[in-house]
């Protein structure tokens, strides 16, 4: 095999017909030559561990709410704020983090993001007051936003075109796997009665403190994984660093195939471009400042703020805001509500979910009004059923990834979204009338699964509607609107719950009616 001649022919073809072989298309051919192997096992393992660490930013809170309510003296409103505060951090930095990732690379933000996430998880685990825990969760939200986008991007950029969609879908399914693993670990840890005092009682560590410590190991493991992984070769190409990009691709080839680098078909790829880039460096440097990149980026996104794209952006952002209100209220409050159902399902002839929740909120108000300094707070501790129910919810959440993949090409994203919205309206309304533990679990699981499907359809629709030059920014805007929705929903839910159980569930039903009606104006797909 004449490797030099093959590469020369590839470069010559690129010069004669650049439309066929751009640098990105060349790297796609090179990645295809590398095949699929141990490097991709490492890549997907990193994605799984990183996703679990990210999900824990918001999922640890629902599990500790019942058991830590007395240790931190939390009211329902404070529980809602604790659920929501990571999303405040995410909302503040999401858009700027996306821009910085494209400017400075993926790896630096993955390593710093997960490393910082580990440190603040340790701070959260050491919390002795509600205020410290809220502060730690706020910074966890910021660090999650910093690491989330590059984790998704780098996973796709190491894959050639033919396998990219399947790898991205597989990574998306890790969300449901993460929920199952987290529920199982929470069950094993929070069912213990650990308690330890340090420094003559100055620091009191309860089981929920140890729980956060142990869960922080996922972010530490993600930090180590992403230190091992190289920078994206596609990012190197956008920066004109052809030598670094070639070295990364050669490394992938040797890890996947076990063959020496000399046998790689494209070992001399981009050497001519690298020489040309070095010769032109003084001219390029003048226009490669951050200010120039910002101006260029702003020029590229002008089309997004013109009709019809700006109307689609506003519509999809508004719908995502409302959809995330429902999805994350259902997901984040499920462990707390499940614990209440466990304890109040057979109290005073209570028949339905609202009867149980009203009995709980009434007891909380009575205890608060009649409490004295000598009273001992008794938390509504989660039993085995709560964790089993959360595991069931995780398994049910896998179903949308299967159904959406089968149906979306047959009925179209818009029609599928309208159907999912109509089902969600009925299920959300029915939750209020659930009269058994089985019905509560089934309806919550179905509602969360359908909501997850709708969010996935949003993402697919956004990728289709917006052109490449504005796609990332559009996704950032839409994700930010969803996080604001999560924040608003988690703050309002306990307030509405205090007004009466039926109020929040009727409100959520109304929200989904609005979303379903708005979906009629989506573009056909």
Automatic annotation (TrEMBL):
It is found in: Membrane. Its main location: membrane. Residues 42-525 form the Major facilitator superfamily (MFS) profile domain. It is a multi-pass membrane protein. PROSITE patterns: MFS. Keywords: Membrane, Transmembrane, Transmembrane helix, Transport. InterPro entries: MFS (IPR011701), MFS_dom (IPR020846), MFS_trans_sf (IPR036259). The chain crosses the membrane at residues 41-64, 84-101, 108-126, 138-156, 168-190, 210-229, 309-330, 387-408, 415-434, 440-461, 473-497, 503-522. PANTHER family: EG:BACR7A4.13 PROTEIN-RELATED, SYNAPTIC VESICLE GLYCOPROTEIN 2. This is Major facilitator superfamily (MFS) profile domain-containing protein. It comes from Iphiclides podalirius (scarce swallowtail). The lineage of its organism: Eukaryota, Metazoa, Ecdysozoa, Arthropoda, Hexapoda.
